[in-house]
Every structure is written in C-alpha cells, then in structure tokens.
Design goal:
This protein has 79 residues and is mainly beta. The protein has one helix and seven strands.
C-alpha cells in the first residue's frame, strides 16, 4: 500500500495494490475517484483537493497508525 501526494495539483493517491490489469476509474464525486478491476477488486483511491480532504491544508501532519503493532508514521504536508 502506498500514499502519494502531488502538491502541484493537490492530488493524493492511495494505491492499495499494484495495477497488474486494466482498471476502470469510477468518479464518485467531484473530489473522489476509485480505480476498480472488472472483478470488483479496488486498486486505488484518488483524492482531488487532497489537502482539504486529508485535513492537511496548513502544513499539518498526516499520521498513519498500524493498529496491530501500535506503530505510527507521520508525513508532513507542505503549507
């Protein structure tokens, strides 16, 4: 799993798995797209206007928590 963020376009992408087959992008709303395979497997989630959706608009930190181990990782977003 991988989260990428492009501050030039303010887009975040949560890749749940490697794209090994053709996927269809489904537009859920003006700010949310989902990449899904024909068998229903979700490959990724694209967040447009990401800094607002992730609550990172003012140079805040996104914290990822592994509930099983209790470990956390932090990513600082640009202001």
């Amino acid at each position: 799993m991988r989260l990428t963020y492009d501050p030039r376009y303010n887009i975040a992408y949560l890749a749940l798995r490697e794209k090994t087959e053709q996927v269809e992008t489904i537009r859920i709303s003006d700010e949310l797209n989902i990449d899904i395979a024909p068998d229903g497997t979700v490959y990724g989630i694209e967040l447009l206007n990401a800094n607002v959706q992730l609550g990172t608009g003012n140079g805040e930190t996104l914290t990822v928590v592994n509930e099983a181990s209790g470990r956390t990782s932090a990513v600082k977003f640009p202001a």
